[in-house]
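Here is the promised in-class demo. Please do not try to memorize the tokens; focus on the logic of going from shape to residues.
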């Protein structure tokens, strides 16, 4: 519980950016075949039903300490393992799908071809390390190790261990699938880009006519660069005082957090949706989040973000 960061999914998405933008020049790309040496087919995953938790295995990570998977937290395109290494502190290991890498771009860092896959390894830091798996259809799977609470464990070693497990699962059993029909009022069924229309975006000062840029699975969408509007659908803990000032938007509970947080600037507005109990027994809630990073005082930015959320709330399912 100590490792859970309020609105952490927004921080993660903002920090890495879109998959295509994050990738740098590489030296190798995987073969075009979709059948690995094992004979197990590896089709491109369906963005709406591909299960990121099928790529994570906590067992190999337990050589570093306690490690447990959390299948119901964060963005719908991601899954995480919470670790408490024997060396102290904590680590969040995440596997997240990102959009297909354009054919003209290569993976960042040192690239290793593994049959129909490729793995890109970049130099990590004392607090963060990530690896990128490029699937046969060029969909990206980013496996990251995020250190917390002053841990001194080797984060790149942890990222490599988790990546190896993910590669093994892709090439032997394939990527698992999940159903979107189980919970009719879940945000997982929505398209983030469709929640904000041109009329709503026209109220954003200086944004102009822009097209939404969807993330993997369309559970996140961004408009513009400066100013920038981002909308995220995710699963987290219940709203509390760390999420900002309580208010009501469209008859729904909401929180407004001006001035940014954890290195992310702008104003964040959140509206909770369906509450549920996760597989591990923890209370969870689905959230719609709008992050607006523009110009002017914090109050003006929050006025814009709140106005955008007012147009979104009527399009959300009842909690």
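The designed amino acids, position by position:
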């Amino acid at each position: 519980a100590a490792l859970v960061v309020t609105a952490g999914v927004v921080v993660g998405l903002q920090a890495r950016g879109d998959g295509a933008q994050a990738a740098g020049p590489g030296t190798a790309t995987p073969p075009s075949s979709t059948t690995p040496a094992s004979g197990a087919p590896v089709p491109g995953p369906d963005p709406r039903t591909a299960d990121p938790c099928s790529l994570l295995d906590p067992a190999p990570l337990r050589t570093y300490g306690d490690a447990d998977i959390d299948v119901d937290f964060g963005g719908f395109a991601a899954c995480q393992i919470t670790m408490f290494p024997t060396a102290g502190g904590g680590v969040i290991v995440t596997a997240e799908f990102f959009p297909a890498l354009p054919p003209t771009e290569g993976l960042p860092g040192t690239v290793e071809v593994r049959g129909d896959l490729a793995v890109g390894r970049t130099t990590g830091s004392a607090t963060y390390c990530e690896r990128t798996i490029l699937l046969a259809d060029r969909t990206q799977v980013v496996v990251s190790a995020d250190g917390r609470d002053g841990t001194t464990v080797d984060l790149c070693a942890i990222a490599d261990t988790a990546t190896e497990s993910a590669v093994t699962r892709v090439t032997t059993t394939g990527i698992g699938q999940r159903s979107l029909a189980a919970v009719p009022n879940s945000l997982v069924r929505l398209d983030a880009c469709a929640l904000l229309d041109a009329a709503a975006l026209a109220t954003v000062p200086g944004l102009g006519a822009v097209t939404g840029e969807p993330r993997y699975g369309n559970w996140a969408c961004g408009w513009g660069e400066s100013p920038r509007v981002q909308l995220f659908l995710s699963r987290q803990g219940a709203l509390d005082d760390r999420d900002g000032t309580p208010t009501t938007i469209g008859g729904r509970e909401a929180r407004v957090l001006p001035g940014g947080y954890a290195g992310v600037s702008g104003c964040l507005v959140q509206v909770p949706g369906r509450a549920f109990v996760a597989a591990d027994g923890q209370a969870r809630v689905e959230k719609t989040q709008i992050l607006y990073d523009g110009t002017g005082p914090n109050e003006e930015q929050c006025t814009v973000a709140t106005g955008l959320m007012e147009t979104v709330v009527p399009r959300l399912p009842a909690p």
